[in-house]
Amino acid sequence: QLQLVESGGGLVQPGESLRLSCAASGFTLNDYAIGWFRQAPGKEREGVSCIGSRGVITGYANSVKGRFTISRDNAKNTVYLQMNSLKPEDTAVYYCAAQRFVCGPRWGSTNEYDYWGQGTQVTVSS
Description:
globular, four-stranded antiparallel sheet, mainly beta, single chain, seven-stranded mixed sheet
């Protein structure tokens, strides 16, 4: 069974950091581009970043540029999202998703992805 599992979420204060992990089971991530998405209460799910199967980073949402960094370790079958200088508006459930090989121009669209994780909650509050 193909699964993506996110971890690393939690409650932090503004300005602090978290690193999210997206681990695959049942398949290898080597052939998949991985996108990170987030969904805040009452809002649509939005694309945060995407990294291709060979490590090419397609981009970041404007709201996280300069603060978040996506990376992958194919040997560990895991993709990461390092989140620094967190703000209350970053509070959301964060999801990872997989699509074949590359992050296309519509990487921020949920329709582009074949597999999804269950999400991990990130809360930024003082």
